Amino acid sequence: AQTVTQSQPEMSVQEAETVTLSCTYDTSESDYYLFWYKQPPSRQMILVIRQEAYKQQNATENRFSVNFQKAAKSFSLKISDSQLGDAAMYFCAYRSLRELLVGAGSYQLTFGKGTKLSVIP
Amino acid sequence: EADIYQTPRYLVIGTGKKITLECSQTMGHDKMYWYQQDPGMELHLIHYSYGVNSTEKGDLSSESTVSRIRTEHFPLTLESARPSHTSQYLCASSESRTSGRVSGANVLTFGAGSRLTVL
Asked: Do B32 and B89 touch, CB atoms closer than 8 A?
């Protein structure tokens, strides 16, 4: 079974600075998707960014980018020019493609325990 | 506006009561999910559905049950609530892309959650 580990329960960053959230995962598969989701306090969880393991190029979405190291099974999230609205729980998630590609299996995500990010004005 | 709605947002009830957490989405998504999220811990999938009359149990064993009679509606029921059921329950749905590699990119849209406290 796959596992996702977020080793930083809490992080803080000064407004306008850059912060990196760590995520490692354990899998024996070579084909999968990785996601970062953001959960603001008392609000809906939303997608931040996603990465297909098949692609070597790191995904970017405006101020958010990832450092995907497939061999090391690492998928860190970098937030540049941090804003107060970035304060939230951030969850790293994994989805296997192996079973999907043969038309079986579920679309479920395996989540890490989350990192609580605080932004200091 | 297309979205996913959960009610109630907060519920405090006594042990032994029957409760139903409602989840509805207006996006026409075929796939819907229920996750349980305890404070400071990761989300665990407890139920999922890939369409009307289709429901499956997730990785985390749960005493709750679900039904999918209509595409847009995926309620979760606890017949007899206990303090161990105290948690936050998140409902989600996902895009209905074609099968294969591109389906792996399906993004989950989450509701705001239902926080249940059983006394």
From this structure: no
Q: Please, what's the b/e burial string for B55-77 (b: 16 or more CB within 10 A of its CB; e: otherwise)?
A: beebeeebebebbbeebbebbbe
B37 in Cβ contact with B51 (< 8 Å): no
Which residues does chain B have within 8 Å of residue A34's beta carbon, measured at their own beta carbons?
Answer: none
CA B41 to chain centre: 17
Residue B51's DSSP bridge partners are B54
Tell which of A108, A110, A113, A115 to mutate to test the B interface (max B CBs under 10 Å).
A108
Closest CA to B91 of B109, B70, B104, B103: B109
How many CB atoms lie under 10 A from the CB of residue A10? 11
User: If you search the block for the tokens 């850059």, which residue do you land on?
Assistant: A18
Q: Is B99 on the interface with A (CB under 8 A)?
A: yes
> Whole-angstrom Cα distance, residue A114 to residue A85?
17
pLDDT tens per residue, chain B (119 residues)? 669 999 999 999 999 999 999 999 998 888 899 999 987 777 889 999 988 999 998 878 788 999 999 999 999 999 999 999 999 999 999 876 655 566 666 788 999 999 999 99
